[in-house]
Amino acid sequence: MWKRSDLKARAKVSFKRNYWKSVLISLLLALIVGGSSGGVASSAGSGDDPESYNVTEEHKSTENDEDLHETFNELNQEMEKDLGHSGKIAFTVVFVITFIIVFMVCMAIFIILAAFVANPLEVGCKRFYLSNLNEPAQVGNIGYAFDNNYKNTVKTMFFRDLFTFLWSLLFIIPGIVKAYEYQMIPYLLADNPQMTKEQAFAESKRMMNGQKWRAFVLDLSFLGWNILSALTIGIVGIFYVQPYMDATHAALYEALRYGTPNSSVN
Predict the structure, then answer these.
(1) Residue 215: half-sphere exposure toward Cβ, Cα within 13 Å
(2) What Rg, from alpha-carbon coordinates, does the chain have?
(3) What confidence score (pLDDT) does residue 47 get?
(4) What is the largest CA-CA distance in the chain?
(5) 183 — phi, psi (to 5°)?
(6) Average pLDDT, stretch 105-117?
(7) Res. 135: pLDDT tops 60
(8) Distance between the two ends of the chain, CA-based, in angstroms?
(9) Do residues 129 and 246 lie in contact, with contact meaning Cβ atoms separated by under 8 Å?
(10) Is-contact 151 170, C-beta < 8 A?
C-alpha cells in the first residue's frame, strides 16, 4: 500500500536531480492540458508636448465618433430603404449562420490539434517522468508517442477525452470520478504503446479501483503549494510545484503498477 509521503519523497529526488528539464517538461504539459493561460496588454505614446497631444487626440476622437455615428445612421437608413424589415431578418440569419460555421471550424481545428498533436505530446511528457524516476530522462522523450504506435495513442487518448467530456455532462461529479478512473491511461501508453484502447481503459480502471479517493486526497495535499503559486502569479508553480506534482503522479503510477522500489526512496 502506497503512502503519500513515500510518493512525494521519491518525486522530489527524481525531479530535483534533473531540475531544469523537469521544469521545461512540466511547463509544456501544463500548456497542453490547459493548466495555465495568460495575456499581456500594453500601451505607449510619444510626442514633444503630451498635454497638447492628449487634447488634440481627444478632439479628433470626438470628431471620429460623430462621423462614425452619422455614417452608421446613414447606412442603417439605406438598409431600411433597400431591404426593409424582411431584409434585416435575412441579414441577421446570415450573420448568425456564418458565426456558427466559423465557430464549428475553429472547434474542429482545436479537436484535431488536440487529438493528433497535444495528446501524443502529453503521453511523451508522462514517458519523461516515468523514465526520470529511475535515471535522468531526456527532453526527447516528449516525441515518444509519435514514433511508437502513434495511431493507437491518438485513438485511445481521443476516447479518453470524449468519455470524460460525456460523463461531465452528467453534472461535475461523474466527470471528476471518471477523470480519476482514466488517469493512468497516458502512463500506460507511455509504458506500453502496444496496449490497445480496450486494454488501457480496463487496466486504468483496475489500477484506480479503490484508489480514486486516495488519489484525490493526494492532489488535495498540494493545495497549499497551489495557493502559494497563485500568490506568486504562477512563478512558484512553474519552477517547483508543477514538476513536483507531475513527478508525484508518475510515482503513483509506478506504485500502483509495479510497487515503489524501496531503494529509490531515500
Answers:
(1) 23
(2) 26
(3) 43
(4) 84
(5) -60, -30
(6) 93
(7) yes
(8) 18
(9) yes
(10) no
